[in-house]
Amino acid sequence: MGLLTFSLNLTLDGCVDHEEGIADDETHALFTRLMDESGAMLWGRVTYEMMESYWPAVARGDEEAPPAMREWAVKLEAKPKYVVSSTRNNFPWTNSHHIAGDLREGVQKLKDATPAGVLLGSGKLATELDRLDLIDEYKLLVHPRIAGHGPTLYQGGLPGTRQLELLSAQPLRNGAVAMHYRRAR
């Protein structure tokens, strides 16, 4: 069984707005490595639609992008992408698959079928999967910014505190810190 790893950009005040992070070559290289280490990507519908609206065009070369962003886009194009949605069932982007029905069962089957692990990149979906006790690790990139607005990580709340074990903390040249935690069970 593969691990489910939640990975996301956030500011010091917990904002997960994708426009608030530092999108430079170093951060794109970090997320490319995380994707390379995983067997599949997992998103909610909103994140999927945001990604689908931009990254396929970068992978095709239709959008100008620096080499690190293009590398991410090309690898993302090839990576299996799983989407949780109760409102949409057609996901035409290359290698995209729908997870429907019972959330716990669908995500557990994905974990069981993906020995290299699954990389989760949706904040709202992470809250639901954490409530179901399905997240094994957290790889968060904390940016040196205070956004002063939301959305924020876990703003929907959890039923209890999650104890985590720090595995590593790596500062980047841009001031962000890549934090790797494992769920203490």
UniProtKB/TrEMBL annotation:
Pfam families membership: RibD_C (PF01872)
Domain of life, source organism: Bacteria
Segments crossing the lipid bilayer: none
Domain Bacterial bifunctional deaminase-reductase C-terminal: 5-177
Coiled-coil boundaries: none
Xref: PANTHER family: BIFUNCTIONAL DEAMINASE-REDUCTASE DOMAIN PROTEIN (PTHR38011:SF2), DIHYDROFOLATE REDUCTASE FAMILY PROTEIN (AFU_ORTHOLOGUE AFUA_8G06820) (PTHR38011)
Protein's name according to its UniProt entry: Dihydrofolate reductase family protein
Organism: Phytohabitans kaempferiae
